[in-house]
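Input.
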Amino acid sequence: MLIISDKTIDPETISSSLNPDEIQAKILGIMHTSTNTYNFSSNEELLFVLNMRKNIVKASKMLLRSRIRFRTFDESECNEYFWKRSEEGGFLVKDDIKPTDAINDIFEHGRIYGTECATAIVIVYYKAVLDTFGDNLFNSLFTDIYLMDWQNLDGNLTVINYRKPSDYFPGDCRYFRNPDVDPLTPEWQGENTIDLGDSYYYGHGLGMSTSDGIIHALNAHRKDGSEVSAYLLESCTLPDFKHLFHLFKNT
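Output.
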């Protein structure tokens, strides 16, 4: 059920004013048919969330096309003109560099970057926020970008984990776990992915695939003789859209 300003809304009604694209229309349809209630304070807030999810999907496909390489943290690489590589293998934007330029360089020159899948998701999130907020607002709010994992996000970009959400949407981050991973390749203990819609996912190092395809790829990195398959967890992770909307509207 979709509710805006305490009123139940039909997707066809809202579509006439928002003019959603295919991804956004799919999200509206899921909200409308769900037994869960999705509350928004205004059309503006709903449109913001739709744009964020659309831009997460778009950024995932852009990162795939950039040909960024899969590397462990020990082997990570970056463009040192824009970023300082930490001892842990993360990337810290340099003080004299605009955050927008640093993020965009990854998508423009992905071949000279290498990192693992959690960092790739963080990169996707920052790019989606940049494309939603615009350059000036992004540069004013996200001044301390450190690309590594969920624990090292800029204070203005927070994430929420839902253990068992009622619905899944394009733009969700979903995790595939590989419980019997080969100890010689611990980097394949799981894969952070972005739900692209239409039963496809983007996973850094694995590309764009169905859930069966990702599970098959992870199963190739199991202990010898293992019969325990990789699987998709029920949980999902998302940026805190309400917090981001508050920043977008009030900054």
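The longest strand covers residues 190-197.
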